[in-house]
Amino acid sequence: MAQQDTDQQHAGVLPVDDEGFVIDTEDPAEREAAYRERGTSRPITVVGNPVLHKECKDVTEFGDDLARLVDDMFASQHTAEGVGLAANQIGVDLKVFVYDCPDDDGKRHVGVVCNPVLVELPAERRQLDESNEGCLSVPTAYAPLARPDYAEVTGQDEKGNPIRVRGTGYFARCLQHETDHLYGYLYIDRLSKRERKDALRQMAENEPRYPVVAND
Fold first, then answer.
1. Which of 19, 47, 103, 127 has its CA 20 to 30 A from that of 209?
2. Fold classification of 28-207 (topology level)
3. Would you list which residues are annotated within the binding site for Fe cation?
4. Catalytic residue among 158, 178, 195, 207, which?
5. In the chain, where are the structural domains located?
């Protein structure tokens, strides 16, 4: 029994494919529900909160505290009806994000990435998608933002195992958006001044549909 526990501790949370990327599309509903049902939903921090505007700390401890945080992040993401959530969006200064996001083929991806780093793509692989983007930390606001329609992220899972995640279309946008969060960038920081002002106007004119932390 003890040996089995040790093996499980060192095994990756998700299986990988022949190229070494996690397979995050198997049993997504069951896995997301297991995380969420263990967790407690927390309110979302919004633009202006200092924790959103600086690089987060690296995750160095992969134990029970991180597991509880991940569970709470899935619960919070579900409450807010989001497809991705970074730790600083619930006020925690750590480089970890969770996702429950479909790609453009309708496949549902569910997973956790700690200490993410976006892989720099060669120019010939940077095909831009100019779809609308929104953010739980800028509630009710949307704006078109050009991002590559393919993304790769390296990092670690919640047990500290090295992982690689890749996505196309909407899921690629999610991977880029959430990684940005952990380095202190909101999507509105990538907009022109006029577009940013318009997004903040949208936010001011509407009420969020989920609990948020008011900025003092």
1. 103
2. Peptide Deformylase (3.90.45)
3. 135, 177, 181
4. 178
5. 28-207
